[in-house]
């Protein structure tokens, strides 16, 4: 065993060095690349199974998140999927946004299940609890039955979803945000199901998830996208659609089938990537969480096409949001919308502060960009959001997530209930406890002289077990009570 301890003084020196090499990238103009880059990412995260949290508020939240995943009844989450497939229900649906009308439109029927798939997949990786794997296998089997009963690849809990998308395919497209032809965010629901299936396949090697994903992606591509002009698709994208472009690039990544990349290109919202690729801050008045996931998709699209405009758009967006639209806790917006930075003082006392969804999706974008540009500015931002917004957004007793975090001094919070809320922030709030360990450590894809083998991005008590290198790194701290952080290396052989 070889031990090393970083003291308070050495931590401060290390942070100073990191801050010297880390800075915000300037807002830049785009140039059109056009060829697929050989390798555009330089940093990798460790699999969640190789990082275990130690005693801290983060471990407490992870435990509460896992307990809630195990408490939820999969058959209730599957209720509307079976109904839309013409199969009898096995359990009553949950209330709130899962089944009740919201302001005369919607609701997000079945929307929770996609997040449940991704959350269970990541939580299994993070905890190795076999009960989660059993749940995952059950849900995938049920979704396969629903697709077979429907016979066409459609897989949504959306009421009369086939009829809705048949109208869209015919050219009848009446959009606002958040509805398409009166239905709440139907493309968003497709995106979240695709992301959940992708997580089950990539995180837990559930081979049965990939055919389900392909059938759903093909259904939307052939039955809807191929029947619309580019202008009609752009009209469809006015409504919140998550990172549907990312999902189709992922389908291409997993299958190598070019049709998915072609569909991904058509699903890039020009109203966002165009101005942001030119460095324009046009965000005032836009619904924040509708925009943020698109840029993770733009970055993913760049990685598989080499089109610099989409990298530039994603980088500029991250810089503009973090510099011009971010509260001190790392969150952004009030009442779900971006506003000019001159209005921060006036908006401080508004009830609807930063939305939890926004921060979750900004962290996803940060994770993506950090793999290409691993610098201290991104790590610092990630830390600020995770510690000051995400961690604080959960009920410390029951572990349920709040929608808004008011910036009013001494103001209260309203947390979701277990069985009758299912807000969008409860959707993303289901995932965060499952991936708390993702960003703590990373490593360069290729080691160059002078590069660190392991990069420590967050000071969170944890154990990294890098089996490939025979390295175990133990991190202990009591932040913020103490500034000292201790690291101990356990090595299988001298290195």
Please describe what this structure looks like:
This protein has about 500 residues and is α+β, with helices and mostly antiparallel strands. It contains 19 helices and ten strands. The chain has helices spanning about 10-20, 55-70, 75, 80-85, 110-125, 130-150, 160-170, 185-205, 210-225, 230-235, 245-255, 260-265, 270-275, 290-305, 310-325, 345, 355-370, 375-390, 425-430; strands spanning about 1-5, 45, 50-55, 180, 185, 440-445, 455, 460-465, 470-475, 485-490. Strands 1-10-9-8-3 form a five-stranded antiparallel β-sheet, with no helix packed on it. Strands 2-6-7 form a three-stranded antiparallel β-sheet. The protein has a two-stranded antiparallel ribbon with strand order 4-5. Strand 8 (about 460-465) and strand 9 form a beta hairpin. Helix 17 (about 355-370) packs antiparallel against helix 18 (about 375-390). The longest helix has 21 residues, at about 130-150. The chain is globular and about 65 Å long. The N and C termini lie close together (about 10 Å). The model is unreliable at about 1-35 (pLDDT under 50).
